[in-house]
TrEMBL record, chain A:
Name listed for the protein in its UniProt record: Uncharacterized protein
Automatic annotation (TrEMBL), chain B:
Organism: Spirosoma oryzae
Residue stretches spanning the membrane: none
Keywords: Transferase
A molecular function (GO) term: transferase activity
Keyword flag Transferase: yes
Classification via Pfam families: DUF2204 (PF09970)
Keyword Transferase among record annotations: yes
N-terminal signal peptide: none
Top-level division of the source organism's lineage: Bacteria
Name of the protein: Putative nucleotidyltransferase
Amino acid sequence: MIAQNKFDSMQELKATVKPMEEYSQRSRQSHVQQECLVNFFKEGVIRHAAPSRPDTASKEMSYGV
Amino acid sequence: MGYSNDIKIFSTLQKHAVEYLIIGGTAVSFYGEYRMSRLANGQVTQTADYDFWYNPNLGNYYRLLSAVEELGKDVTRYRDETPDPKKDVFKFEFEEENYTIDFLPHIMVPISFREALERRTTVERDGIVAYFIGLEDLINDKQALGRQKDFDDIENLRKHNPNGFPPPQP
C-alpha cells in the first residue's frame, strides 16, 4: 500500500498523526533529536528580516488574502 | 544519534532553493522553551514533526518535490498530476530517520507568504541556513488556531521574549 502524502487540508493531514506510545524509546528518541536540532540553530548566527539571498518570492504567485 | 539525520532536511531544502518558513512546534521551541510535537488534544506525537510553510507557487512546488525526492521519497505521482500549490498539503513520514515532515501552503492567520518572509528570522550555522517565521507572525497564527496547546505556546513565547524578538536596542 502506498502511503498517502498529499492532503486537501491541514485538518485532514493532522487527523493522520499518531500519539506517542507509552514507554516507546524510539518515540522519545525522535523528540530528543528534534530538541538537539533546535538547540543547534539557537546557537547559530541569527539575522532578523535580512535576506541572505535575493528575495525570489514571486508576488504574483504568492498565496495571500 | 543527535540531530545529524534531521539536519539533512535543512541542507536539502537549501540545496534545492526551496522557499519555506519553519512554523509549528519547531518554531515555538526555537523562540521559547523546547516542547515536543503534540496533537490538537495535547497528546505527544509518536514522532517529532517538522512543519514547513512553503511558498505556494509552481516553481517552488517542484523544487520542494525535488528536495523530498532527494530525501528518499518517491514523488513521481505528484509530478505527474496537476498540482494546486495553493491547496496541496504534504506529509512525509521518514521511518528510518524517525521524524515526520509536513509542508503546508498557508497558515491560519491571513497573511501572505511574501509578507511573512520579509519578517522572518534567518539562522546560519555550519553552512546550514534555516528560515523561521517571525515571532509575531507565529504568535498571531497561534491565536488564530485557538486551541489550548496554542495558548500554551503563546505563553511560552511571551515568557521567553517579553520584549519581542529581537528585543529593541537600548
